[in-house]
Each structure stands twice: as C-alpha cells, then as structure tokens.
Design a protein that fits this description.
Layout (H helix, E strand, L loop, with lengths): L2 E2 L8 H6 L6 E3 L4 E4 L15 H11 L5 E3 L17 E3 L3 E4 L12 E7 L3 E2 L2 E3 L5 E6 L2 E4 L5 E2 L3 H6 L5 H4 L3 E5 L9 E5 L5 E3 L1 H4 L29 E4 L7 E8 L4 H16 L5 H8 L2 H6 L5 H13 L8 H9 L5 E3 L8 E4 L2 H4 L7 E20 L27 E16 L1 H8 L2 H19 L11 H18 L9 E8 L3 E8 L10 H6 L2 H13 L63 E3 L6 E3 L3
Parallel strand pairs: 4-21
Antiparallel strand pairs: 1-5, 2-3, 3-5, 6-7, 6-10, 7-13, 8-9, 9-10, 11-12, 11-16, 13-14, 14-15, 17-20, 18-19, 19-20, 20-21, 21-23, 22-23, 24-25
Helix pairs in contact: 6-9, 14-16
Length: about 625
C-alpha cells in the first residue's frame, strides 16, 4: 500500500473518531485513501482520564490496560511537535476519465480499468502514448468482519481463474445505459471471451467475488487473518462502508464512593453485621443512623459483606452506575464549580406538576456534565450498537484499530442535560395491561424476522418499557430542539430501562466545544411540563398516517422489522443522537394514534377549548 499524506482542512476530534477513524475511506483530489491503524498515527494528543471506561474497554479487547487519548493535533497547531495521520492509498484500481472507442455504438460508454502500477505520475499512458486522467474505482470487496480488498477483476470478469491476468490483457468498464445502475455497468476483458454485469456481484448468493481473504490493509502489510466469509460488494462512498463502534460513559460522582465513605464512618458499629436484621438493629443507634442517612440497606449490606470477604467489586454496567447516581435522593449531586465534571439539581415538583406529568417521579436539571466517548473498533455493512445497559457485546466480530492495542482514540463532551425519572410502579403496572402485552408480542415478532436475516447476532428484544421510553425520548428531543437553541442533532439520549434500578431518560448536549454549554437545555427544563406536552402532541399524528400508524413490524413487504409506528415523519432523528441507530421505536406505546390500538403509557387525551391535556395511563 502506498502511504498518503494527511488531508488538508480542519477536522474535529469527534469526526476523526466517528467518521474518519482507522479503517475508514477518505476521498482526496487525485485518489482515495484508507485511514491507517493507530500504529501509523503520530502519538495521540492529551490523555483523557476516565478509569471506569478504560477498565471496561480493556475487558472488551482482552488486554491488561488501555489508555484513552485525543487524536493527534492539527498541523496548524503551534504546540504540536509531531502531527499527522497516515493514509494508505486504496483502492489500487482506477478508471480512466476519457471515453474509449466502443463497438457497441453511441449508447455504450467505455473506459479503461487500470491498476496503480500502470500509472505514471498519477496518469495512465495508453498504447497511443496519450495521457489519461484517472479516478479510483468505486467498487471494492469487503466482509462483515471489516476486512476489505480490491476486487479481483480478472477473476470476476471470467467467472473464475484465467490466463488474461498473467498476460496483462486490458480490462474495460462499459456503461450500457444512462442511469449508472449496477445492472448497466459491465466489466469486459480484451480477450473478447469474458464480460460480466456488476449486478452479479451485488447478489451474495452468486459468490461472484469469491471468499474474503482476511485482508486488513489499514494495519499495514502482512496483517491478513483467516476469515472464510463470502466477499461482498461495497460501494466506497456508501453509508454502510464504515460503522465506528464506540462506547461512552457519563463522568458521574461514584455512588459507591459515597457508600464506602458512609461505611468507613460507622465501621466500628457494623463490622459484625451479617444480615439485614442486624443492620436494621444497628441503624437504631444515633451514630449509625446519622452516618448511613440516604444509604439503602441493601447497598450498605453489600459493602459490609465485601469488606469482610476482602473482595473487590466488579464494575457495574455503564447505565446502572449512571442511573444509581441520577436517582439518588439528594437534591444536589456533584459540585457547582466551573472546572467540575458533574453538577445536577432536582427541580421542585411544585414547578412541573400537572396531569400529564403524573407518572414522572423526578426531574433533574443537569447544569454540568462530561461525556467521554472512545472508539473501540469498527464494522462494515451493519452497525453494532451497545445493549440497553450501555455495554458492548463481547461476541460481536469487530475489526481492530491496531495490531496491538495500547491506546484508543477518544474525545470528551462537556455540556448540560435534563433527566426525567419515571415511577417504577407506574411502568410495571402499565406493562401488565393486555393491550401492551399484545403490542409487545407483535413488535417481538418483527424482531424475530430481523434475527432470521442476521444469523449469529446476540442482540435481544429490549421489551415494551424500553421501546416506550426510547420513543418518548425521540419525541422530546424534537420538541426540545424547537425551543432550546440547539439543533436536534446536537442533543443526545440515554434511555434507562433497568427493572431492578429504575426507569428514566437523560437528554444532554453532545458537542465537544462551546456549543454544548449554552444553557438552553437547563433553561427549557425549568418549564419541562410544557415541552413534554408539546412532545406528546407531536406523537399523536404523523404526516404519514395512517400508513405509519398501521405499520406491521413483522411485514416482509416493508422490511422495517425493528419499527412499530415510526418513520421519518415522526420518530426517526439523527443517528448521532440515537443510542440505537433509530431502531426499537413505536409511538403507539407512548400516545394514542389514529390506529387506536389501546394501551399507550400516556393514554387519555382530553380535547377542550384550550390545549389538549394528557393524563397518565396508570
């Protein structure tokens, strides 16, 4: 592979991770490059400290430890001693720009298909000594494991091995139509005995491109690994050419630290405690009661038993640790200081209480938060999202960012947010309704149809509670963007549907610069009841109704297996904002629709002379 210089132009750190990470393709003026692995990057920028995320990523990658670093600084950064990210020229096959003589008449446009080794100073010199400009071929071969390579064009044109490659016969690419569709693009050999439509390569069952050879050109030479999957046709510029697999955490005050400090203060009283009865007896003492104030019995007992056994606590799943902090009984969490990582205050219920907020337990305005996002690996053809607890699936086949991973590119967002905690009993009672259970069965049937097309996936159906909260979150993001000053693409979500811990949603700004700390979310959060009302109104009617409301998730005609009543007219938002890439959505679980299926969480809409009012379902 031929190395290429770093492209000109300023690129944000978040873009380097989410768009131009190792293994991604980037078009330059004269050729295309494949961004090289981390060994070929100059030393990363600043180290980001987030121990909880580092430990989890080390466990996923099966290494002892891993550092988190920002990507290298830009070339114009005066403080940067060494900068740059290497790119390898890819693909190595090109198409000439000028048209060739065609025996098929004016309806056929013919160009030459040439290899990089046949070029001289970036141009192809034909047999008549004429210079021709070239552009990279748009089709390559890849597999679901992330491997990628040039298509064996001689093999493809001849439907097998031939002598034409050794003899150096010329290959042609014919456009036998005006649309540019693959059915009209043909690869033809000079021998006159072989030609084949590119449409054949698009059908996986044809195995027209052979088996994947495990090429990982972004990691440098001699880095192939065994694969055996069929090679698939991949359009370089297509949106499915690169899906970064990222993991993020919100930097929160550790709930376990508060428990440990409380137990430290009363250890002389509780060191002999063996069960809940013993702990409740000790709590009757004034010193223990004061020291353990706000600490639930089960958390206190778990810490006591852990100390007595001399063990170490395994990190909790990402969202469980975050939710425990957010639902803590304190009115304030964190420290209100400019350099602080997290500070939140509960909004008094008297401010936002109204009929349609009846099932909301708590509203927390997050004045300051810090999110750390790191790229772990990447996939092609299909994204691999974290599960509903924020954890990465260890069983997913992912393409590595380096031959030996010692650090990962990461960036941090500093912003603000709004957290809504729902009453656990209200959601549990709602899930027991026959209409909700029937709807969940239909949505689960769609998920099973999706699984049939994704053999080997370990993804699980998240359940009705998650779908309801996720759909409500999308409606609320849209409503917030109309009044908070942030575009919807700058607002991110975290949906918490954890039965033994709680239910809620956190909406927060997801930018890495000053745009994330303008104060708009907190300001709108002070009248959150109005925004929730607007969100519910948005969900009741879609511009694509009744088609949208009547969508059957299991329908093989539309093939939207992970959607209920959801489309671009109502629930689908920017995928950078959604934690599930716009999967698992159904507004019929949130509010009544024109289909009137029954059982939405916000069920009763009472229309009067003034604005509609929404009453909780339970």
């Amino acid at each position: 592979m031929k190395p290429a210089k770093k492209p000109h132009g300023e690129i944000r750190q978040s873009q380097l991770i989410t768009t131009f990470g190792p293994g991604s393709m980037l078009d330059l003026p004269n050729y295309s490059v494949l961004v090289a692995g981390l060994e070929f990057w100059s030393a990363g920028g600043e180290t980001i400290s987030e121990p909880r995320l580092s430990r989890k990523l080390a466990r996923v990658l099966e290494v002892d430890s891993v550092e988190l670093k920002t990507p290298p600084p830009a070339n114009d950064d005066p403080g940067a001693a060494v900068t740059g990210i290497t790119g390898f020229q890819f693909p190595e096959w090109f198409i000439t720009q000028g048209l060739e003589e065609s025996k098929g008449g004016p309806s056929i446009r013919t160009r030459l298909l040439v290899h990089r080794k046949a070029l001289t100073k970036g141009k192809y010199i034909d047999r008549d000594k004429k210079k021709k400009t070239v552009v990279p071929v748009r089709c390559v071969g890849a597999c679901r494991a992330g491997h990628i390579a040039d298509i064996h064009w001689y093999y493809f044109a001849h439907s097998g091995v031939s002598e034409c490659a050794k003899q150096g016969r010329q290959l042609f690419i014919d456009e036998r139509g005006t649309s540019g569709d693959l059915t009209e693009v043909w690869i033809r050999c000079e021998c006159g005995k072989a030609e084949r439509s590119m449409a054949a390569a698009a059908i996986l069952a044809n195995k027209a491109l052979g088996s994947c050879d495990g090429s990982r050109p972004w990691l440098g030479p001699f880095t192939k690994e065994s694969c055996g999957e069929p090679s698939r046709l991949l359009i370089r510029s297509a949106s499915n050419a690169y899906f970064p697999q990222t993991m993020s955490v919100i930097s929160l005050p550790d709930r376990d630290d508060a428990v440990r400090q409380a137990i430290d203060a009363v250890w002389s009283y509780v060191e002999a405690v063996e069960g809940l009865d013993d702990l409740k007896y000790e709590r009757k003492k004034a010193a223990v009661k004061a020291g353990l104030e706000g600490i639930p019995d089960d958390e206190a007992l778990a810490e006591i038993q852990l100390r007595r056994l001399g063990g170490s606590k395994i990190d909790k799943p990402v969202k469980i640790a975050e939710l425990e902090t957010l639902v803590a009984s304190k009115d304030e969490v964190g420290e209100d200081r400019p350099e602080g990582m997290f500070y939140a205050r509960a909004l008094p219920r008297a401010i936002w209480e109204c009929p349609w907020m009846e099932q909301v337990e708590r509203v927390v305005l997050v004045h300051r938060l810090r999110e750390v996002v790191a790229e772990v690996a990447f996939t092609r053809f299909e994204a691999a999202a974290p599960d509903i607890e924020g954890e990465l699936d260890i069983g997913v086949r992912r393409a590595s960012l380096a031959r030996e991973v010692s650090w990962l590119p990461a960036f941090e967002n500093k912003g603000e947010g709004i957290f809504l905690q729902f009453k656990t009993k209200a959601i549990v009672d709602w899930m027991r309704l026959p209409e909700v259970q029937a709807r969940a069965v239909k949505l689960s049937a769609g998920f099973e149809e999706w699984r049939k097309e994704h053999q080997g996936t370990t993804r699980e159906f998240p359940g009705a509670a998650y779908l309801m909260l996720h759909s409500f979150s999308h409606l609320l993001i849209t409503a917030l963007s109309l009044s908070c000053g942030y575009p919807a693409s700058s607002i991110r979500e975290r949906v918490y549907a954890i039965p033994n811990v709680g239910y809620g949603i956190l909406l927060y700004t997801g930018t890495s610069d000053a745009e994330g700390t303008l104060g708009g979310l907190v300001q709108v959060g002070r009248r959150i009841q109005e925004t929730v009302k607007a969100a519910l109104d948005l969900g009741m009617l879609c511009s694509n109704d009744p088609v949208c409301a009547q969508h059957d998730a299991a329908s093989r005609h539309e093939r939207r297996f992970l959607h209920g009543a959801a489309c671009h007219g109502c629930l689908l938002i920017s995928e950078t904002s959604c934690e599930q890439q716009n999967d698992f959505l159904d507004r019929a679980l949130v509010v009544p629709t024109v289909q009137d299926l029954g059982g939405p969480f916000f069920s009763e809409i009472v229309t009067s002379e003034g604005p509609a009012s929404v009453v909780g379902a339970v």
